[in-house]
């Protein structure tokens, strides 16, 4: 036998190198993914099926990034983005792709995650649930402010930078959100309100946040400040009320910390209603400034109907709504359940959930402040035996204690709502190994024009042999 070992050829790309490569699939951030002599290369703006010329901009141990220079073979699904700042903003990633392909690519993102992180050979995945009108769907925006000379700039940070891009006419935001934020910025500039400087950690006004009720067409305006108050408060409120009659509340949120988080822990009502009312189906939800609520109310109804299908309730079940927010999912399921129990870490959200239950005449739903990973295992230890658990966690996925509790108590049915295919698949792999079967996977296009995909997974306990 030869002592010379066969070695795989290692390709050493270098920054600035120009390469040609075919684009095979979509990356989780909306970039095109190709392979150059077996090395993964991410190319912003490239579409699966295209052949492109790109310049290498970054080399990592496992992949490289490149800038699109030329399209040698153009996709039939490439369209002109309607947004004038699409290339700069970074808020949307797929405006250059026809809607039909967007839906297929989002399904593939979920399918690829399950193929990569689970041992499944067949995935019971359905077509992506689309949105009829995929523009002006977002009910909320939270935009940072910067002072540039005498002007107050407001917008979103360009992808992978701290350069502010003006998005006052954003095409995916509800028009009232755009109008409110644009006018509020003008008032801030007119009153010469001090603007926060993140490098020096001084100044006052950090963010402007607007949330609209699609049902009532009313707006909740939140100003996030470093200080507990500011001298121009009354003048600001007066001018907002005069210029924006749809704004029904102005709230100050105090965030004194040097952090990238938008909201601080304490809010104070400056004028108007403390909470915004929104309707989903025949249910009304009251929303505090910090409370989480789905950003696309129209598509949320479709999402919750998929959750209802997956829960398969008969009226006899105890349902646990982990990460319940203002009680949206739990209350949506309550009409078909015997008992609903929810939990969330934000006290205002739980107060809203309790108020929402009373407002909608639902007496068999109860809500608690705390982490799902802590409360559910404790309740299980105390003897709670839920029939169905529904979880809609943050992008980081389920906490390990929650997975352990699900496996320990052998919850018969688990409905997982996820905004991150990778953590969804990783968590599901543990559940599958622990005795669950993946019954159904439904991708939903909650955020058209972006690479984000929401997924509803139905998992059931395998029969004991």
From TrEMBL:
A biological process (GO) annotation for this entry? Answer: rRNA base methylation
Which terms in the Gene Ontology molecular function aspect does this entry carry?
Answer: 4 iron, 4 sulfur cluster binding; rRNA (uridine-C5-)-methyltransferase activity
Under the heading InterPro entries, the entry gives:
Methyltransf_25, MeTrfase_TrmA_AS, MeTrfase_TrmA_CS, NA-bd_OB-fold, SAM-dependent_MTases_sf, TRAM_dom, U5_MeTrfase_fam
Quote any Pfam family the record assigns. Answer: tRNA_U5-meth_tr
| The TRAM domain, residue ranges | 12-70
Residues of the active site are: 419 (nucleophile), 419
Q: Which UniProt keywords apply?
A: 4Fe-4S, Iron, Iron-sulfur, Metal-binding, Methyltransferase, S-adenosyl-L-methionine, Transferase
Give the residues the record marks as binding S-adenosyl-L-methionine. Answer: 294, 323, 344, 392
| Keyword Protease annotated | no
Task: Please verify whether the record's keywords include Coiled coil.
Answer: no
Could you say which residues form the signal peptide?
Answer: none
Q: Which family does it belong to?
A: Belongs to the class I-like SAM-binding methyltransferase superfamily. RNA M5U methyltransferase family.
Entry protein name: tRNA (Uracil-5-)-methyltransferase/23S rRNA (Uracil1939-C5)-methyltransferase
Species: Lihuaxuella thermophila
């Amino acid at each position: 036998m030869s002592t010379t070992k066969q070695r795989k050829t290692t390709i050493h790309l270098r920054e600035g190198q120009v390469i040609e490569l075919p684009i095979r699939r979509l990356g989780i951030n909306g970039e095109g993914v190709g392979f150059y002599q077996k090395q993964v290369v991410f190319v912003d703006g490239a579409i699966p099926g295209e052949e492109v010329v790109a310049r290498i901009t970054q080399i990592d141990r496992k992949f490289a990034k490149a800038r699109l220079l030329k399209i040698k073979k153009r996709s039939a699904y490439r369209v002109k983005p309607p947004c004038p700042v699409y290339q700069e903003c970074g808020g949307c990633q797929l405006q250059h792709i026809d809607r039909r392909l967007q839906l297929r690519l989002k399904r593939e993102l979920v399918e690829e995650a399950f193929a990569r992180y689970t041992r499944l050979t067949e995935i019971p995945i359905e077509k992506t649930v689309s949105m009829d009108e995929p523009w002006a769907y977002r009910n909320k925006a939270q935009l940072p402010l910067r002072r540039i000379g005498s002007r107050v700039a407001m917008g979103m940070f360009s992808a992978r930078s701290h350069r502010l891009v003006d998005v006052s006419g954003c095409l995916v935001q509800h028009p009232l959100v755009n109008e409110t934020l644009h006018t509020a910025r003008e008032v801030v500039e007119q009153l010469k309100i001090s603007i926060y400087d993140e490098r020096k950690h001084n100044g006052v006004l950090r963010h402007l946040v607007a949330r609209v009720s699609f049902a009532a067409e009313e707006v909740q305006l939140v100003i996030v400040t470093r200080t507990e108050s500011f001298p121009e408060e009354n003048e600001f409120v007066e001018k907002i009320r005069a210029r924006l009659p749809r704004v029904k509340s102005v709230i100050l949120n105090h965030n004194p910390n040097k952090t990238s988080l938008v909201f601080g822990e304490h809010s104070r009502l400056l004028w108007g209603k403390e909470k915004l009312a929104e309707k989903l189906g025949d249910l009304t939800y009251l929303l505090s400034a910090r409370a989480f609520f789905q950003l696309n109310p129209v598509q949320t109804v479709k999402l919750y109907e998929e959750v209802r299908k997956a829960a398969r309730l008969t009226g006899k079940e105890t349902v646990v709504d982990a990460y319940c927010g203002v009680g949206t999912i739990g209350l949506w399921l309550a009409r078909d359940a015997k008992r609903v129990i929810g939990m969330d870490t934000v006290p205002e959200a739980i107060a809203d959930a309790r108020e929402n239950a009373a407002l909608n005449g639902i007496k068999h739903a109860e809500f608690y402040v705390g982490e799902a990973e802590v409360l559910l295992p404790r309740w299980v230890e105390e003897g709670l035996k839920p029939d169905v658990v529904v979880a809609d966690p943050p992008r980081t996925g389920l906490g390990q204690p929650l997975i352990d509790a699900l496996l320990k108590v052998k919850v018969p049915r688990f409905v997982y709502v996820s905004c991150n295919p990778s953590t969804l698949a990783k968590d599901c792999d543990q559940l599958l190994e622990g005795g669950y079967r993946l019954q159904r996977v439904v991708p939903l296009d909650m955020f058209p024009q972006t690479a984000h995909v929401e997924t509803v997974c139905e998992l059931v306990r395998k029969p004991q042999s």
